[in-house]
């Protein structure tokens, strides 16, 4: 045996460390090397490499100043280091080629014949004995075992179950020792391998489910998992044409839209017709008819739909010729219809003086208490017209000195819908005072009384006004 001086050794996981002041410094260094990197903790003798993302061995012989004392030599090991006497090995430590001990020779005084000494080339004898050398058993350091060929074989502590890893750890054999590690998906905490919750560290882009030693990623509805099994990509749902009309793809979903005149149904994909006519009763001037995706306005008989598509315009049957009047009749158009006026017939004692005027001569005794003239006029009026409204004006055409004029409604105003408002000494206006509904025909006799006190004269003239009230307010 070689002298190891008075140095003591401490066995930790199959390695020998020098029990000295530097031993304490080594342990402190090893503890400092056990630091987390991205949530990873390494066992003693290893440090976490962020680039390689794994634990790598720490070369204590380089990082620790004067790791071994005196003539002890530092030999780095995977997960630790050895202090070996320099007299034990005079070359770098190689377990597979252990140093050979000096051969032991027997004492010549024991009586061995000289013939065992080999002859030298000059005829002399060698000083070394000629008997076979005795091979001693190789001296192997901790972690190795002698082999039959005199070398040292590594002891597989993991195979022989001579390691000290706890049940949650995995034993990894190394040259001259072993290390305790954790399988992928676990890390070492308090000497125990505990599952890494990858979901806490954002391993998945969207949904994450942690499982012992691993994790599983999934995606929200509207996304599919990429080949990297971590990130998600949007699904273009519009490619499957889920909408009745139009489709707009969004991030993680889609939206359906409808053509004009339709609205989205409760299912969010189909479209139903929009009843525009239900929105307002004023959409059309007369009547609204709903159609798929739109609407149309219709007008009553005697009207046509104007260019705006909503209002009604009167058809002038007298201009278009679409009437039933004879050549002897006169066609009179009013809102929504027309009428055929017969030729004027003046009843006795009146005589016709023009196409629309009858006169009763003052020389005729029968005309004494009758209006001097009757003038026939026609007009149309929309049903429900707002009131008050000035609708007709009359005035004296002949003025006499010292005369004044009185205007009044003589007949036809039984419902009190009208009244006369005198606007000057010689004129007056017929005013609609109450709404009037059609269809209706109103005949009013508007009388103008002429009074002349100078010559003691009193006479009157009549305008017989026929008003055709339309059925509709347009």
Give your account of this protein's structure.
The protein has 474 residues and is mostly beta strands. It has four domains: 9-101 and 136-189, no CATH class; 237-273, Ribbon (Laminin); 276-314, Ribbon (Laminin), CATH 2.10.25.10; 345-469, Immunoglobulin-like (Sandwich). The protein contains four helices and 35 strands. It has helices spanning 21-33, 60-63, 157-160, 317-320; strands spanning 9-12, 15-18, 46-49, 54-57, 72-77, 80-85, 144-146, 152-154, 170-174, 177-181, 186-189, 192-195, 207-211, 214-218, 223-225, 232-234, 246-250, 253-257, 262-264, 271-273, 287-291, 294-298, 303-305, 312-314, 330-334, 337-341, 351-354, 357-359, 373-381, 389-395, 403-411, 418-422, 427-432, 440-452, 457-469. The strands form 15 sheets. It has a six-stranded mixed β-sheet, with no helix packed on it. The protein has a three-stranded antiparallel β-sheet with strand order 30-33-32, with no helix packed on it. The longest helix has 13 residues, at 21-33. Residues 1-38 and 89-136 have low confidence and may be disordered.
